[in-house]
Design a protein that fits this description.
alpha/beta; Rossmann fold; 2 domains; six-stranded mixed sheet; four-stranded antiparallel sheet; globular; binds adenosine-5'-triphosphate; ABC_SmlMolc_Importer
Length: 240
């Protein structure tokens, strides 16, 4: 699937957030997007998913103009419905797509153990930890999957060990099923471990999107290059 974006711009009031972005999203690859807080990463994902409208620019899938890409979108907020149990929340996209409830539940149940959620089927979101809710959101994204998967900081609310396991799980799944993964992270190591391609979004410079070319470099050199592109010697990318 060829995904081409041209001249994509977005402003809020007088604040120009995205300035004429051009890129093709690498198909069947894992692409990481990094950049300082507030530079417009989530706005870009909202535009791609059709949750916001473009001021100008165009999006094409296999040469066809589209107003949104075919995405499963896991947002920063887990968006779980408080009055539904874990099982019902995770099954929701399948049920909405027309799968019978019983069958949707059975499908979800077969994946629960892998996500460390098998013992919590009947729990409501307010009875789950932040990390667990994130895992339910990840499961829900994976179970009703479109050709492109957008993830906005998928592992930021999860403890380090669970995050590592889920990263590995996601990587294996992507390698097996070959969907196009585009994810936002503030974690340089996560980008280096998980992504085939790494892009940095800038607030001020033009072009606003920079592709980090680290062909032939070892891990340490790639790490250094990425920190340099982020304009930071070391330490954290941004403070929330
Ligand atoms: N609906 C909106 N209305 C007005 N301004 C908005 C809206 N959504 C985003 N913005 C502004 O657009 C800019 C970019 O926001 P965005 O959420 O994309 O940043 P980000 O790079 O994802 O940041 P972070 O890494 O902290 O999540 C910010 O200045 C934000 O205040």
């Amino acid at each position: 699937m060829a995904i081409e974006i041209n001249g994509l711009s977005k402003a809020f009031g007088g604040h120009q957030v995205l300035r004429s972005l051009d890129f093709s999203l690498p198909s069947s690859k894992r692409t990481a997007l990094l950049g300082a807080s507030g530079c417009g990463k989530s706005v870009l994902f909202h535009l791609l998913a059709g949750l916001l409208s473009l001021d100008s620019g165009r999006m094409q899938v296999d040469g066809e103009l589209v107003d949104k890409l075919p995405v499963s979108y896991m947002q920063q907020k887990d968006l779980l419905l408080p009055w539904y149990t874990l099982l019902e929340n995770a099954s929701l996209p399948l049920v909405l797509s027309g799968v019978r409830k019983q069958e949707a539940h059975a499908q979800v149940q077969s994946h629960l153990a892998r996500f460390g959620l098998a013992d919590f089927t009947d729990h409501y979101p307010n009875q789950l930890s932040g990390g667990m809710r994130q895992r339910v959101a990840l499961l829900r994204t994976m179970i009703y999957r479109q050709p492109i998967v957008l993830m906005d900081e998928p592992f930021s609310a999860i403890d380090a060990l669970s995050a590592q396991q889920l990263r590995l799980f996601l990587k294996e799944l992507q390698e097996k099923e070959q969907f196009t993964l585009f994810f936002i992270t503030h974690n340089v190591e996560e980008a280096l471990d998980l992504a085939d391609e790494i892009w940095v979004m800038h607030k001020e410079s033009t072009p606003q999107l920079q592709r980090i070319d680290s062909t032939g470099l070892d891990y340490e050199a790639r790490r250094k290059l990425l920190w340099q592109a982020l304009g930071v010697g070391q330490g954290v990318l941004s403070m929330h």
